Amino acid sequence: MGKKPGLDPELRADDASVDDLTADIPDSAMPTWESQAAQYPRSGPPGISYFRGEVSDSYHVDCLLYRTENGELVGILNHYPADFPPYESEGNMNIWVHPAHRRKGIGTDLFEQAFMRWEPQLHTSISESGLKWLKGMDRKIGGTDRDFRSLGWQAFHKSHLQETATDDQSRDGGNSP
């Protein structure tokens, strides 16, 4: 039996393997960096920040924006909290990184930050570039303490929230709430 496009919908996120994926969306069908970046403020605080993208009165997209030290937008992660037919399914995530800033860990940082905020959802569609990126992520963090699949998402999320709280308390002398 050959591989089907995308991911087997019966797999849980904790059991997922990038080896089970095949691309089913050509890169030519994906929006460009320029078309995505034009939707956000041109400058902002350095690092990763949250932006609520209002699509309509009743729908929004959760956006994580990655900016350089001088505030230039170089990375975008869009998370869809609900179905957005016919374009996106609930839980989908899209990542764009400015072409001049690729291979610097920006996509990885956005992805990890998204996993701290939203439980991963598995869907049946992935772009050619997305598949290459996921395979690179798997080689980079697979089997490490940064791989949510090792504990399961719930346990991974809980342990990382505890680590963050401990780190925050040690930085401010234990005065964090």
Describe this protein's structure.
The protein is an alpha+beta fold and 177 residues long. It has one domain: Aminopeptidase (3-Layer(aba) Sandwich). Helices cover 28% and strands 18% of the residues. The chain has a 4-stranded antiparallel sheet with strand order 1-2-3-4. It is globular, with a radius of gyration of 17 Å.
Topology diagram in text:
Blueprint (H helix, E strand, L loop, with lengths): L32 H5 L9 E10 L2 E9 L5 E7 L13 E5 L8 H12 L10 H14 L11 H19 L6
Question: In DSSP terms, counting alpha (H) and pi (I) runs of 4 or more, how many helices?
Answer: 4
What level of helicity do the residues show? Answer: 25-40%
Beta-strand segment tally:
4
Which CATH first-tier class would you pick?
Answer: Alpha Beta
Class of secondary structure makeup:
alpha+beta
Largest sheet report? 4 strands, antiparallel
* Poorly predicted segments: 1-14, 166-177
Give the overall shape, derived from the CA principal axes: globular
How far apart lie the N and C ends?
54 Å
Classify the beta-strand content into a percent band: 15-25%
CATH hierarchy: architecture:
3-Layer(aba) Sandwich
The spatial strand order of the largest sheet comes to: 1-2-3-4
Name a few traits of the molecule.
single chain; alpha+beta; Aminopeptidase; four-stranded antiparallel beta sheet; 4 strands; disordered N terminus; disordered C terminus
